[in-house]
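Trying the structure run again after the queue cleared.
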Amino acid sequence: MKRNRRFEKRHKGGRIRSVGVNPRSFERGQLKIYAYLVPISIVMLLPIVYIIVSAFKPVDELFAYPPRFYVKNPTFDNFRRLFEISADTNIPASRYLFNTLVITVVRMAGNAWIAVSVGYVLSKKNFRSKNALLQINNAALMFVSVAVAIPTYFVIVYTHLYNNFLVNIIPALVAPTGVFLTKQFIDQLPDALMEAAVIDGASDYLILRKIVFPLVRPALSTVLLLSFQGSWIEVTASQMYLDSETGKTFAYYIGNLSLGGSVSTQGVAAAGALIMFLPSIILFIVLQSGVMNTMAHSGIK
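Done. Tokens:
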């Protein structure tokens, strides 16, 4: 079994050295891999570098032609002005940012709990219409938000969520993608583990908290990352379902600066874009091992 996981390399002296599939030291055979990866990495990093650099550029450098990927006179003035001005109202940018933080935290917690709970029920429980519910969830994966915008609007109006801060949270608490991923991951957990817990007197809530949640951390990482990305850049509710500016999000505020602002506010918009961009990158770096593990195993039974 060990020989299947390793390969052997013969040197000129006849000595055979065992080398791992993912060697710890540099090997000449890796040069062709780097020849592909390095240029691709540089191309992919250029937009990231430009976003970071633009946030620290004064206005004259921001509109310099041709554009530069460096800044001569870096300044924090864009960040200072971001929290001093507003596009069309007297509401400070800090209020929009606070709204986004609250929405993101609540939606992440709700998405994680509901995805794991529903995934556990669909995976380990037997009841009527179980397969029908699973197929409905899978069918929901095919619909983008634009396709269901009109029915969503009517549901929100009839449930009295229109112009209510909760419209940012409640419609997004259940994510079909999260349910699907966690259900596929929970399918891999042995039934005997759950049965032993039931024999010991554990309730479903205790099984979820003590067994399922710790074992599905990779899938949970993916759910949290997807939930964060959707919540952090949320603008749909602010544009369609909210009239009051006090309940709108930071992404909506930055969008207004970029589209409707003057030339002098473009530096502020660049600073806001960096604030919107960095948390997603940082969270992905922190959770990337779990995300990769989920993508590799979610289809295995």
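The longest strand covers residues 6-10. Worth checking whether this holds up in the mutant runs.
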